[in-house]
Design a protein that fits this description.
By secondary structure, the chain is of the alpha+beta class. It folds into 2 domains: 105 residues, Alpha-Beta Complex (50s Ribosomal Protein L17, Chain: A); 38 residues. It is built from 6 helices and 5 strands. The strands form 2 sheets. The chain has a 3-stranded antiparallel sheet. Strands 4-5 form a two-stranded antiparallel ribbon. A hairpin with a 6-residue loop joins strand 2 and strand 3. The longest helix has 20 residues. It is elongated and about 80 Å long. The N and C termini lie far apart (86 Å).
């Protein structure tokens, strides 16, 4: 029985698995995204996220612990200098796995694992998108008339009767503009 054995061995011996995860983590930290299989990406996420959390405290002890996992000075320097500054306020979830489909040769599920704060495309679309709720009272403060394209200020009142009066005034001004 496999009670409490949640770690994926990835079909490798311990030394091979540790070396592979170390190399993949180094590549991820240097290049900010890598393409791999879904199983390896999930194992890599469990491997690299505690290291990123450890990099938030920049001390000699934490650098040595991270170096013992990564075995690469360039990756440790990149992690403590650039990445830790970007993820300082994030409480976890530093990586994102995006599935890409299957590999042509052996039909393995492929994905792209990336650092969340380094995808400029997703960060820019996140800022421009704004979700709004649809409600009766939450009308916008400005309304555009269809005929002239000008903007008329509509007061936002608390009662629905005031909204009806404002819409009636707007309709009256629209008909006056049409006549003129």
């Amino acid at each position: 029985m496999r009670h409490n054995k949640k770690f994926n061995h990835l079909g490798r011996k311990t030394a091979h698995r540790k070396a592979m995860l170390s190399n993949m983590a180094t590549s991820l930290l240097i290049h900010k995204r890598i393409k791999t299989t879904v199983a390896k990406a999930k194992a890599l996420r469990l491997y690299v996220e505690p290291l990123i959390t450890k990099s938030k405290t920049d001390s000699t002890h934490s650098r040595r612990i991270v170096f013992s996992y990564l075995r690469s000075k360039e990756a440790v320097t990149e992690l403590f200098r650039d990445i830790s500054a970007k993820v300082a306020d994030r409480p976890g979830g530093y990586t994102r796995i995006i599935k890409l489909g299957t590999r042509l040769g052996d039909n393995a599920e492929m994905c792209m694992i990336e650092l969340v704060d380094y995808n400029e495309h997703m960060l820019s679309t996140k800022e421009t998108k704004k979700k709004s709720r649809r409600s009766r009272r939450g009308k916008s403060k400005t309304a555009t008339t269809e005929t002239t394209g000008t903007t008329a200020e509509v007061k936002k009142e608390d009662s629905p009767k005031a909204e009806v009066k404002a819409e009636a005034k707007k309709a009256d001004t629209d008909t006056k503009e049409d006549k003129a």
